[in-house]
Amino acid sequence: MMLEVDKINVFYGAIHALTDISFNVEEGEIVALIGANGAGKSTSLKTLSGLLHPTTGSIRFLEEDISTKAAEEIVRKGIIHVPEGRKIFAPLTVMENLEMGAFLQNDKDQIACDIRSAFERFPRLKERQNQLGGTLSGGEQQMLAIARGLMSHPKLMLLDEPSMGLAPVLVEQIFEIIQEINKQGTSILLVEQNAKMALSIANRAYVLETGSVVLEGAAKDVMENSSVIQAYLGG
Ligand code: ATP
């Protein structure tokens, strides 16, 4: 197992945000976490990436307990957190954003090579390489967030709401890119309010409600579950 989250509890002060949550990701998988606003999806990702720490429970990544590790160390181990697209560095150029994504890499040639790969994957970003991040469209910012994440050569990518605020045609494009990244060997944990899209590309899914996992299974089974259809797939 690549990632094993076992009964973690996470608090914001007195607020109990995650209660005994367990889930896992196998190498090569796309796993979706779906659920309504406030269900605990973003908190789960922040805990995996070391921005928050569980009070109890464990997080194992490639057989090692990472639940108390610092965020930078977790990136070093191969987990990257791609926040929703608006959280790129707005006052920096596209190029500078990508360079920031390579903060663990000292080899300048390798960085240049990775930037070339990013531009091959996202020609749109190449055209806008000297433009400030904050002036990009929503879809371009999301692409930049993903491209920046790839600069660290992650084994596991945590994607927070990649479809947020995007027109349907761009959502399709972003989801195709996610599938492509996965096919090239990066495992993906995908948090989405757009349950339909997430389930359509995921191998497995977990449904979160008020900080707990209430349902888990193969994405196609979750998609056919009547309470999921009722609550998240528009009846
Ligand atoms: P959303 O899509 O709205 O971000 P979510 O499923 O990602 O929803 P979380 O953001 O993880 O949910 O929130 C889980 C719970 O933790 C909610 O009750 C939320 O109000 C609370 N919470 C989130 N961030 C904080 C914070 N910084 N301080 C206090 N409580 C928080």
Automatic annotation (TrEMBL):
SMART domains: AAA. One of its GO terms (molecular function) is branched-chain amino acid transmembrane transporter activity. Keywords: Amino-acid transport, ATP-binding, Nucleotide-binding, Transport. One of its GO terms (biological process) is L-amino acid transport. It comes from the Bacteria. InterPro entries: AAA+_ATPase (IPR003593), ABC_branched_ATPase_LivF/BraG (IPR030660), ABC_transporter-like_ATP-bd (IPR003439), ABC_transporter-like_CS (IPR017871), BCAA_Transport_ATP-bd_LivF (IPR052156), P-loop_NTPase (IPR027417). Residues 3-235 form the ABC transporter domain. This is Amino acid/amide ABC transporter ATP-binding protein 2 (HAAT family). Gene3D superfamilies: P-loop containing nucleotide triphosphate hydrolases (3.40.50.300). Belongs to the ABC transporter superfamily. Pfam families: ABC_tran. It comes from Pelolinea submarina. The keyword Nucleotide-binding applies.
